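User: Before I run my own analysis I want an independent prediction to cross-check against. Here's the chain; please return only the structure tokens and, at the end, one sentence I can use as a sanity check.
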Amino acid sequence: MSRDLGNSTGTPAPPLAHRVARPAWRDPRLWFGVLLVTGSVVAGARLLAAADDTVSVWAMSGERGAGSPVAVGDLVAQRVRFADEAAMERYFSADEPVPDELVLVRAVGEGELLARSAVGPADEEAVLRVPLEVDPNRVPPDVAAGSVVDVWVTDGSSPDAAPAEAGKAGADQDADQDADQDAGQDAGQDAGPALSGVTVVAAPAYDDTFAVTGARQLVVAVDDERAAEFEQLLGALQEPVIRILQRS
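Assistant: Structure tokens:
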């Protein structure tokens, strides 16, 4: 007796069950990834914005003294972060050129931001141009327009210097003249620098002035008060000798 184990004529076998896939947009892992990427982008944008929270303002490329004209070639742009807008308004934005015909009303150091309070109109500033005649050996050879210098003054007729005409000084002078001479010598000995941190506004080439005077000519910018004091000092000395020391 045999038994048929097949199912060739019976009820067909049921199909295999398949798991229904969840749509990708409903996957919480997708949304978590989107949130992570979005948060990273926002955080990065904020960091970049904070790192670039600066403005560009004009600064001096070199040291300049009072009376120096503000020239484009003397300015460099620097990026600075200000605490508030009011502080930023005190300086010149590098997005715009500095107005023409401005001069410094005080000394400004190299790299210092150009403050609006440090400049004024050239026609309103009480600045005089004082010419100096200096022995070429008493002035650095690279002094030029824009250099900042100290001007030292001594009396060439002092005992430490060779007298111009030995044996004649004071022969015919009265007591008042002797007193003036002593005061002048004391001023010459104590003077120095007679002018500090002044700017050279003109420096003709040595060859242009030597043939006429035998000296190097410099023109410095000095305010009215110091210019008057300087002229009084020179007038009090018998033989004023000027020496130039260069700052920049």
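Sanity check: Confidence is low (pLDDT under 50) at residues 161-191.
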